[in-house]
Amino acid sequence: MNSKVLGHQGVEQMFTKALQKGHLHHAWLLYGMKGIGKDVLAEKLAAYLMCDTQSACGVCHGCQMLKAGSHPDVFRAGLIEGKRDLNIEQVRGVLAFLALSGAESGRRVVILDDAERMNGQAANALLKGLEEPTEGSMLLMVCADLERLPATIRSRCMLQQCSPLCDQDVRLVLQKLNPPVEDRYLDLAVSVAGGSPGAVACLQDRKIADAMLEWQALVADMARADVGKIDNWIRNHLKTVPHGLIVQMMTNAAYPVLQTPCLDADAFSRHESIQQALHLCARWPADVVRHSLRAGPALLACILQLRTALKA
Ligand SMILES: [Zn+2]
User: Fold this and answer.
1) For a tag site, which of 47, 82, 115, 227 has the least CB within 10 Å?
2) Which residues lie near ion ligand 1 (Cβ < 5 Å)?
3) What is the 66 CA–ligand 1 centroid distance (Å)?
4) Is there a contact between 71 and 61 (Cβ–Cβ < 8 Å)?
5) Over the stretch 165-174, which tens digit does the pLDDT of each residue have?
6) Number of alpha carbons in the 13 Å side-chain half-sphere of residue 18
């Protein structure tokens, strides 16, 4: 069956149109926030090239081999776990592969994930390859932070922005995971996903999902929140629940207060201190790393500041 990529139909259409016209650029750069399925999209685009009927049908010999990860004309590279960056040896491997002639399809496709993690040497090597592409070769680069890629590389690629998914698509993706995110967690998941199913895929784990539901209830009315219970939750769950999501739930809870109009100076200064506290909360995950803080006490301090601001 033809597998559907959620949320990136525009990019897919551009690609297939160019393919049909025979005007396909040799290097595409798919960029956008983490967790929105850019890698899935890249696989789909590769399928159009490897498919016997150029339709990514999912059933032909080419599509089947691609799905099994065993197509001889497709090569995947990306950041190796535990490594800091993509190195020059990896890029040399990519270029050597692109220079071969296609065994099955007459084409060679490389999917290069985490492209922004290339170090300087690797990027320079890739640049040379981009300047002299071999016929029939296609480089599909996936990148979560466009600014980190040298402009010289960006300018030689067909840039395609991939947008965050709409809530409905986030929901669908989460339901299709294996195991799926259970229905009772979906509203919470969508509310903190920010359009990125990957950011909330951890809710597949019921323990994490339950802890998050508990947190949501604890911070829902922050001005009257029970600090003892919050402290307890932090002790029990801080290690398992991603810090970004903890903050997101606090922000979601405080945000409606900021929507009320400021009619006088007092209200204005209250809004200001709430915003300052939220800013502090948002910086907490990074501050913990940057200043080697103890995560729990630092979070509690943020919460107390937010609570005071909301109470005022
Ligand atoms: Zn096919």
Assistant:
1) 82
2) 51, 57, 60, 63
3) 9
4) no
5) 999 999 999 9
6) 16
